[in-house]
Amino acid sequence: STGGRGIFHNKDKTIRVWVTEEDQLRIFSMEKGGDVLGVFKRLAKGIQAVGDSVQAESGKGFMLDEKYGYVHSCPTNLGTGMRASVHIDLQGWTAHGVDKLKA
After folding, report:
1. What sign does the dihedral 32-35-36-40 (CA atoms) show?
2. Do the Cβ atoms of 46 and 29 come closer than 8 Å?
3. How far apart are CA 98 and CA 103, in angstroms?
């Protein structure tokens, strides 16, 4: 038994919920292409769905401190708890290898 921990995702694997990770819970949304707003909207919807489920099951919400923001087990993630990343392929550069990037 995994004890409820693991990575849970939708059919398209565009939203994932990682349970019992460094922060106890990590929700992320991603997809190829440039639809940043769509990715963000899906993330917001996922966060709301997980929050609603936690509230329904436990009667408690995410821990929010008025001064410090959302409380995490990792102090470097204190505050909004949000991090955004963009991965891009620099066409031409990757075709010529890492040595061309060192110049």
Report:
1. negative
2. yes
3. 10
- By the 8 A CB rule, do 18 and 25 touch? yes
Least reliable range by pLDDT among 3-12, 21-30, 61-70, 85-94: 85-94
Compute the distance between CA of residue 55 and CA of residue 69 in angstroms, rounded to an integer: 18
Q: In what order do the strands lie in the sheet with 15-19?
A: 6-9, 15-19, 25-29
The tokens for 32 are 């190829």
Closest CA to 33 of 99, 96, 100, 88: 88
34-59 pLDDT per residue, tens: 888 999 999 999 989 999 998 999 99
